Amino acid sequence: MAMNLTRRNFLKAASIAAASVPLSKVAAKAESGVVKAPLVAQGSFKDTQTAVGGVCEMCFWRCQLVGKIRDGRLIKLEGNPKSIDNGESICARGNAGVKLLYDPDRLKYPLKNVGKRGAPKWQRISWEEALDTCASKLKAVQEKYGSKGIAMFPHGSTASYPMNFFEHTVGTPNVSEASFFQCRGIRDTAYLATIGMPPGENVDMPNTKVMLLIGDHFGENIHVSHMKRYLKGLENGAKLIVVDPRYSASAAKSDIWIQIKPGTDTAFLLAIMNYLIQNEKYNADFVDEYGEGFDEMAEGIQEWTLEKAAKVCDIQASQIKEVAELLAANMPNVAIHPGRHVSWYGNDFQRQRALACLTGILGAFGVKGGFVPPKGPKGLAKVKWPSGDEEAEAIHHEEDIYPFSPPGTPTDLIRNAAIEGEPYPIKGCVVWGQNPIQTIPNQPMTIKMLEQMDFVMCVDVMPTDITMYADILLPDTSYLERYDYIKTGTQWNFADEQQQYIAPRMPLVAPGFERKESIYITNEIAKRMGYGDKIPVQTQEEMINKRLAPLNLSIESIRAEDGIHLQPGQDPYGDLELDIVFSSEDLEDYDFPAIPTYIPVEEPPAGFMRLLYGRSPVHTFNRTMNNAWLLAECDSNPVWVNDKLAAKLGLKEGDTVSFVNQDGVKSRTNTTVKVTPGIRQDCVYMYHGFGTMNKEMTLGHDKGVDDTSLITKLAVDPETGAHGMRNNFVKLIKVS
Ligand code: SF4
């Protein structure tokens, strides 16, 4: 039985300046539209008040905030002292939310493109005209091509309500979230196929004895309570094993650093499991109680001797043995981290299966220091758009491919269908909070897809690269100006007295200019498309109160609790309802390997290096690329080059270089070289998200190099359809 996941089971007008002018010049008046939001507590500074209920979204982690307000303006963000998650801590990006809120380049009014897609000329229009245009154009596509003729690219909490509308009520299956198909979808589906649940980042790092990180670069990849858990674990004496071709921030703190050849992680994991099984150093009692198909897996991975894996991974056999012995000596209290951005090589489902199986043979599920399924608050009501008349099958389900895909449709299938008109045309495009130019590999194809659309609408906070291709561009409220998401969880360190929290996002200031939130925009489009009778809620406040009602909570009751409701929690350990599928008949039914299997990846062509990319600690990809405070910390993405390789190439620290990839695609901009022994010679590394091409992002434009522009080749994961993006290869060209 394939999972065939759907989201259901997975989880006015204003005066108009008619001139066509650059976006940055569109009525850039002062923020006189900002008015005071409800405040509940007096702050300690004269004339400064504290607004509670903020929930950060400078990244997806959603730390709880308070805002310091003076004269109706937000002057500072801090962690909410009542938070049992992030506490009073927020990261650099969280702090810099103030600069996003008041960024002069922010979208302010509905805009119409009277130029070309990709070379827009913006004309300010009324909300009435903008909504009429969006609804009539999308309706025309729907009438001509069916609902499936509309594609949607959503991201973040702002997009969940409109995504539910387009997918569920309008009835298009062509919804593609970057967080699934270019990020964590493989992880979630591989763990679903192995243990019956997506893993989240639920490893008990504060209480573990050993942490194993495969490619995770904590310290560069920062999420506050997650970092607290990691650092507490190290402080408590946990041993740290880091497997990474690069000397990352985590590798710098490790006890064992395995400088593995890119793409071979599964071979490494199989050899560890085989060693543990052959030497009877696994948790046989746990496997007997919870395992399915263990004997088949044990037999199937026998070929993976330490020596064979060492050769494949280009490391020492003794290193693999050292890791296996350390895990065995400390099982079951070991934290095998499932990672987050795991779409790498097109063989990633297998690696994620191997990680889940390794956790299983060590008995590290539901125990202190191991993988601990979350036990957060339950009982929040669901508020959903009702089903419409039309429900088309997703392309991959019709074609019976990618049976283990995450919800939605793999992005390249939507893109190919749109460009080729097969299996059907896709002519309407809704982009809500996502920037597909910087998230989806092969930019020329994405641009081709956009160019052939009958209509493209974008809703965003900033003029990101994708907005250059919009016909209608709508200004969203930021996460600091609206009610929406309800963040729930337990305390970060599983303290003795268990507690849970419920924190709905509340505005810290009211929206300025003509920015509107997603429920208003969606409902107005829905009414105009003939779905007015299906609208589930009128406002974000109504949505949140409906969701909280079963728990006898409301926005006002939680505001009176300083923005966070706390309640008793549950013992995080034990009570396991788990079957660990070491050998899967479901996978075998689809001719996929039943047991975790190493699938070799393409080698770099002669003279090329594999392009690896990752996170900057002070940026969230391209989303923060116009933030003055964060650019002051980091405004480029130097490329890491091995010192010996640099000498061969005649490169030295600080040299300026451009790139050309295996398909002859050249980088539009340049960056500098960071020479280091801390990376293998067969790869180079840079931060993702730089090289913004939209000149309306006046601070971030052309800063650093856009790594996505060099990722033209997809390695599609056969089980899920997700996009492996590390099978692209580059040469460096010295510019100075
Ligand atoms: S980790 Fe930083 S950016 Fe992410 S939600 Fe927390 S404070 Fe905001």
Structure description:
The strands form 7 sheets. This protein has a 7-stranded mixed beta sheet with strand order 1-7-6-16-15-14-8, covered by helices on one side. A 6-stranded mixed beta sheet has the order 22-24-23-28-21-25. A 4-stranded antiparallel beta sheet has the order 2-3-4-5. It has 736 residues and is an alpha/beta fold. It folds into 4 domains: 1-29 and 105-197 and 382-478 and 515-536, 3-Layer(aba) Sandwich (Rossmann fold); 31-90 and 481-512 and 550-568, no CATH class; 201-373 and 577-581, Dimethylsulfoxide Reductase, domain 2 (3-Layer(aba) Sandwich); 609-734, Barwin-like endoglucanases (Beta Barrel). Mean pLDDT is 92; it is low at 1-44. A hairpin with a 6-residue loop joins strand 26 (715-716) and strand 27. The protein is built from 22 helices and 28 strands. The structure holds iron/sulfur cluster (SF4). Iron/sulfur cluster binds next to helix 1.
